[in-house]
Amino acid sequence: MNMLRNFTIRAVLLVILGIFGVLWSGVGLYSVSSLSKVADGNEIDRQLVTQMTLLSQGNDQYFRFVTRLSRVMEAKAAGGTPDMAPVQQALDNMAKRLADFKAVSPGPIDPKVSEQVISGWQALLEQGITPQMQLAQQGSPEAYRAQANNVTPGLSRNFGVATESFNKAAAAMLDETRVMVDHQTSTTRAAIIVAMVLGLLILLFTDRYLVTMLVKPLNRIRAHFKLIAQGDLSQPLEDMGRNCVGQVIPLLLAMQDSLREAVSSIRHGFFFIFRGSTEI
After folding, report:
1. Whose CA is closest to 121, among 62, 64, 67?
2. Is 104 helix (H, G, I), strand (E, B) or coil?
3. Is the pLDDT reported for residue 126 higher than 70?
4. Which end of the chain has fewer CB atoms within 10 angstroms, the N or the C?
5. pLDDT tens digits, residue range 2-26?
6. What is the value of pTM for the model shown?
7. In whole angstroms, what is the distance from residue 198 CA to residue 192 CA?
């Protein structure tokens, strides 16, 4: 602490406040950068979840279509007149999910993987189940069975392989994003905690500095003024450096020396006057 006694209090406080400001500015900028990365990671998560949800819904509509169409054809074989509306609804929903998937693709995923899914999905829709639906409506059981047994299953397997590849790539990307988010969160938390501890230490140092360089010296100067007021001009005052308070000490000592010389002159003058009056 004594090494700071020759610097002005204003300069030392400006340095302390500068360090404090730089510390929290750095933490703030790092936190903003980390939050930006976390926000980007969350956006990637949302896009991937949206794509995976659409893909899952498309698969669900495909199996709904196959199940409902099989029941319709069984009912037709039994001589009934089943309603084709639920089957058409599943087909339309699958086509709509494909359009929605195209709108959000490729997203953060590899474009090749996304294109593979779209190609497989579109092929299944246009070359598999749509012709199968048309053959079912035309009342051609042999052609329907040939489409349902020979064409659509292969297209469905290709779509399943593309879907599995997409889900694996999405899962890997989600894991990477979560690891990145966890890392940014933990490092930001650690940076804030360290900054808080350093801020408290800076506060404690500032308090001790002000007590050592300002409060205690002013108390000593005040006590010295009391001695002067009581007429004691013989007490010395220790050097306090060249800071704001220390620069007052030479002036105070000069005033004390002047008062001592003035008192000494008055005493000598009084002595000469007294001796002269005695001689008269």
Report:
1. 62
2. helix
3. yes
4. C
5. 677 777 778 888 999 999 999 999 9
6. 0.68
7. 10
